[in-house]
Design a protein that fits this description.
- The chain is mainly α.
- It has one domain: MetI-like (MetI-like fold), CATH 1.10.3720.
- Helices cover about 80% and strands about 0% of the residues.
- α3 runs parallel beside α7, α3 packs antiparallel against α10 and α12 packs antiparallel against α13.
- The protein is globular.
Length: about 290
């Protein structure tokens, strides 16, 4: 009997290996190979010899300023997505199923349009004589056009528009799975709606909230198109520094070093966020067990 079970497991393992081989090969060729090549190029100096000079450049003021800008924009965009996305996700999750599906379709609608097209659309809307400024001037709300492009404001608006669905989708799925009986139970125990939200509902939405925050923050760190167009060269994130290193003076080593550093920073921050979330959940589980 044990031999039969072991042989079945061995057969299932061989079958899984055979079926997954094409996907693993595609991932290795399309993802891992470029990463390895980028890592190797990051240690190639200007003279073509192995060197660590490319990583020394990252500690210069020029690159450190770009790193600070990258984190500043990423934190700001993540915070705005959280402020806008949480109420939106809650509203969608409380709708009847047929209306929620139609509303969720509107949230997904931007995915069907190219990021480049959406960014240029915001450029048309936000520029000095764009739709937004002209509307505000005609209403008498402002006396002169607002600087909404080629700065932090325009870049943030464009990135929030692109990344907001990435925050809403996991949080909506999490909220949709929370039974209404928890609300009724909290009310039966004497909790006010506010107390029920803070003590019952919000903790239950933390997995979806964490997933949305992680997605938006990590994607923000590597944004290129939106800062390049709406930032107008005055606001540069680290992804834009890669393009600068290749166009200003073709130096694949420096560009690769920036890419490797950005990848490592993203992985470290994602790991720290994951660790923090697990520790907080463990503490809450132990507290509830006590």
């Amino acid at each position: 009997m044990e031999r039969t079970y072991a042989s079945k497991r061995s057969l299932a393992l061989r079958r899984d290996i055979v079926l997954s081989t094409p996907a693993v090969t595609a991932i290795a060729c399309g993802v891992l190979a470029p990463l390895v090549l980028m890592l190797l190029l990051s240690f190639v100096g200007r003279d073509g010899r192995p060197s660590g000079e490319n990583y020394k450049l990252l500690f210069e003021a020029f690159y450190l300023t770009g790193l600070w800008t990258t984190f500043e924009v990423a934190f700001l965009v993540t915070a705005i997505c959280a402020l806008l996305g949480y109420p939106l996700s809650y509203y969608l999750s409380r709708l009847p199923a047929q209306f929620a599906a139609a509303a969720l379709l509107l949230v997904l609608l931007p995915f069907w349009t190219s990021v480049l097209v959406r960014t240029y659309a915001w450029l048309v809307l936000l520029q000095r004589h764009g739709v937004v400024n002209e509307a505000l001037l005609s209403l008498g709300l402002i006396e002169s056009p607002l600087p909404l492009v080629n700065n932090l404001a325009g870049t943030t608006i464009g990135m929030v528009h692109v990344l907001l669905p990435y925050f809403v989708l996991p949080l909506y799925a999490n909220m949709r799975s929370i039974p209404d009986i928890y609300w009724h139970a909290a009310s039966t125990c004497g909790a006010t709606p506010g107390q029920a939200f803070w003590t019952v509902y919000l903790p239950l939405t933390l997995p979806g909230l964490f997933a949305g925050l992680t997605l938006v923050f990590t994607l923000s760190l590597g944004f290129y198109i939106t800062p390049a167009i709406l930032g107008g060269g005055k606001l540069m994130m680290w992804a834009n520094y890669v393009e600068f290193a290749l166009t200003a003076y073709p130096h694949w080593g420096a560009a690769s070093a920036i890419g490797v550093a950005l990848l490592l920073v993203t992985l470290i921050l994602a790991g720290l966020l994951q660790l923090t979330f697990r520790l907080s959940r463990r503490q809450k589980t132990q507290a509830s067990g006590v």
